């Protein structure tokens, strides 16, 4: 059963609210709308890029019936704490995961992630806690906002590194779901994050190229204090 079906089966409909993340795929908010309910956006944990349980609890109203937690980049959401919020307020907690790879592929991605963790400077490397599978290796470019991250990405691509911006526009900025809501961690993550490759097909030379390209630039884009 898909997300829409689960929401309808739980009785979610007109007048109900479902708390979702704005950092990531618009399909989650669309599923809430298709079920007849209203998506309410809560902020993310800056380490996991998943819903922050404290932000979720702060967003609960008398109309809230459910929460949809999305596991992001191979780093799982804090489901235990989210279920705690659900139990306190009588909410359904749904999970949306990302397709997983075989264990040997995950092990190789973790090896590549460890290689980058140990060598990258000038960017903030990802938090590797709670069984991170590194479906995406997402760093932050600690500049002064989007122009710095985008300039960094263009420069790294010019060195032959296939990097990409994982979330270009948070859902609460999109015309169909625009909300006047304060989501500082979501906004910051959208402006600073960059996904670097950790594909199992990468050679040692290609991994070295990623490090050298990033390290040659990272120190130039530090925030001004």
TrEMBL record:
The keyword Transferase applies. The keyword Transferase applies. Signal peptide: none annotated. It comes from the Bacteria. One of its GO terms (molecular function) is pyridoxal phosphate binding. Keywords: Aminotransferase, Pyridoxal phosphate, Transferase. SUPFAM superfamilies: PLP-dependent transferases. One of its GO terms (biological process) is polysaccharide biosynthetic process. Belongs to the DegT/DnrJ/EryC1 family. This is Aminotransferase.
């Amino acid at each position: 059963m898909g997300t829409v079906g689960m929401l309808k089966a739980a009785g979610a409909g007109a007048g109900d609210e479902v708390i979702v993340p704005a950092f990531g795929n618009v399909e989650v908010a669309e599923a809430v709308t298709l079920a007849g309910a209203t998506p309410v956006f809560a902020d993310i944990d800056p380490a996991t890029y998943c819903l922050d349980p404290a932000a979720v609890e702060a967003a609960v109203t008398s109309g809230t019936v459910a929460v949809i937690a999305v596991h992001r980049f191979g780093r799982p959401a804090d489901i235990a704490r989210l279920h705690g919020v659900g139990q306190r307020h009588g909410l359904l907690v749904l999970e949306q995961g990302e397709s997983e790879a075989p264990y040997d592929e995950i092990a190789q991605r973790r090896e590549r992630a460890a290689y980058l963790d140990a060598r990258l400077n000038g960017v903030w490397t990802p938090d590797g806690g709670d069984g991170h599978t590194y479906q995406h290796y997402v760093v932050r470019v600690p500049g002064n906002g989007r122009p710095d991250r985008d300039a960094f990405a263009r420069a790294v691509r010019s060195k032959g590194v296939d990097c990409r911006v994982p979330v270009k526009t948070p859902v609460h900025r999109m015309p169909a779901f625009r909300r006047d809501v304060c989501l500082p961690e979501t906004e910051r993550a959208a402006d600073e994050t960059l996904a670097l490759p950790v594909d199992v097909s990468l050679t040692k030379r290609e991994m070295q190229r990623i490090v050298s390209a990033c390290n040659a630039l990272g120190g130039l884009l530090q925030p001004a204090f």
